[in-house]
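Suppose you are handed a protein chain with no further information: no name, no annotation, nothing but its sequence. What can you learn? This example shows the usual starting point.
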Amino acid sequence: MTERILRRRKCLTHIRRTLHTTLSADGFQLPEEDHFKETHNRNPFKERKSVSEKPIIPHRSFPSSVKADPVGMERVPKTDSGHQFKKHPGCMKSKKLIEIPKILENSLNVIFKDSGCNTLESDGLKLYNYLKARKLPESRTSLISKARQLESQVTSNLSKEQKTKIEELLAQPELTAEEEKELKNTEEDILHKIKMNLHKITYHYEPLPYDEDFALRYSYSRMIPNYCVLTTCLSEIKKRDPAFEPESVLNMGSGIGSAVWATHSLWPDTVRQYYCVDDAPEMNKMAMQILKEGNVNRLNMVIPNVYFRDKLPSQRSGQFSIVICAYTLMDFPHRKSRLQLISELWDRTKDYFVLVDVGTRCGFELIQEVRHRLLKISEQTDQVNIFAPCPNIPRCPMLNLSEKPVPCNFEVQCPQWKGQSQDRIAERYSYIIFKKGELASDATNNWPRIVFKDVIQKRPKDYAICTLCCPDGSLGRYDISKRRNGRELYRMACESQWGDLLPVKLEENDELHFNSDSEESTENNTGTKLS
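A reasonable first move is to predict its three-dimensional structure. Written in structure tokens, the prediction is:
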């Protein structure tokens, strides 16, 4: 009996090894290993979590000693009727639709009209949804893990006759040529089923076709969302560092030039050079056509000093005030090439380095990969500082909520083209902004940020509930009471939204109490389930 079990285990081990060596030979690509351990866990065969096992955010209350930051209160606008808390200094996200420049809107309308494409709206929507659901290739470890799970499923689904026959063959000390052929055919059948099922459940990465048709559809579906997201991210630099006046901008993966328009809308007079890098000629051609108001024969562009190249400038060309890399990292399927790109862009950064990607789990993992890489550099030098959105340097608290990372994303309301069913669309994105050198001396550097959702107001009880990412690296669902924490902090919390900073200074000796009487808390009064 023991010999039979050992022979069976040996057979299954041989199947695994054969599967591992034949995946690539049969046309199934095995990507490189992913060494970023913090965000790597993609086993879809684990048992589904019950409701009680959902990620839980600790539910706490601010003690009575926590009040509104006096520095923040001094910067709240005042009128004859009192403070205007809607404009408190922690407001980083616009409460209104971001206004699209008329020149940009007219240029796009001319291009779309001249294209003569009658299916542009439907094609643009398909591309929008495809880009939002795009992922990186799965790692070798993930594929092997899936294959092993499939192996157990396939072998358990064998009929009783097949299992009995295999056991009889394995129990024999010696096999005839016909029996060896039968056992080999069974092994190949199991391998074939594993590979077929693995092919069905695996995401198949494909590079984007940056041709003329793609550039047109991309302009229709992504120009306005990209502009709104980048304007929101860059406006935080202008609000929190008003003395900063960029002179040059490097845009890696410039695409159709949305970063140029966003930067120009905030600093129209200071930027003297826009260096746009994209190796797709049709995307550069579309970006120039938009800057020429749709007329390709026009000599000058509405925004001067914009240069398009297919390669990064040499380091001898100097550094740039702002380096922007938006929605580009997904085009680099291999981790080594992504990290090499990040190192080259950081070397060319003089002040701010801005990275933006989709607000999905995959986009968040890309942002965390860059964060992890640059913070490794900061161990050797103190030149790397996180400006936004993280108010802290330690490990991202989102990674501690569950085995799979919960994406830290934000939302901006984008206007839609006239004639569409909705006048606006909610665009979610993940981003991070690094500052080379010391951060500008400002009270906002120590304020917690509101994440996940907007603030919930409980008006009859005069308290507000918001999820905060705090400077000490903690994440919590906090109750802010008008009676306990003061009217000023309560009003600023009520006027804040997802992505804003809350003007409160948390001291190290402030003990944050777990909430035991909130209707939002769980049965054991330790947290709130994340929906």
